Amino acid sequence: MDKIIVKDMMFYGYHGLYPEENKLGQRFTVSVELMTALKKAGETDDMNDSIHYGQVYQLVQKIVEGEAKNLVEAVAEDIAHQLFDQFDKLEACTVKVDKPGPPIPGYYDKVAIEITRERQDYA
Description:
InterPro entries: Dihydroneopterin_aldolase, FolB_dom, GTP-CH-I_C/QueF
Number of domains: 1
Function: Catalyzes the conversion of 7,8-dihydroneopterin to 6-hydroxymethyl-7,8-dihydropterin.
CATH topology: GTP Cyclohydrolase I, domain 2
Largest sheet: 4 strands, antiparallel
Organism: Filobacillus milosensis
Radius of gyration: 16 Å
Domain Dihydroneopterin aldolase/epimerase: 4-117
EC number: 4.1.2.25
Structural class: alpha+beta
Number of helices: 4
CATH class: Alpha Beta
Order of helices and strands: EHEHHHEE
């Protein structure tokens, strides 16, 4: 399967379980892999035969910078669901949400979740 990869998009959001996360916010990094057939787009050189990654960025930005959620899992699920709603050519996607420096004890760079969904998951 062909892929469009939009990697390490950065946004500022207010997602988390703790009140300080909802009040102060923090940076989130999101990457998506969009599985779709790209042969026709490669042959026609026509954007209508592909998925516009500028529109993908705007969709992800609206979600991450929008309504606060308790879990990054919910953020990723919302992104996947809306990607399928907006892009008919999308067959499957992987969404990774990184949360650098969450307010939990320990030494680490970040926590992250990654989900993979297929169009049939939302049928």
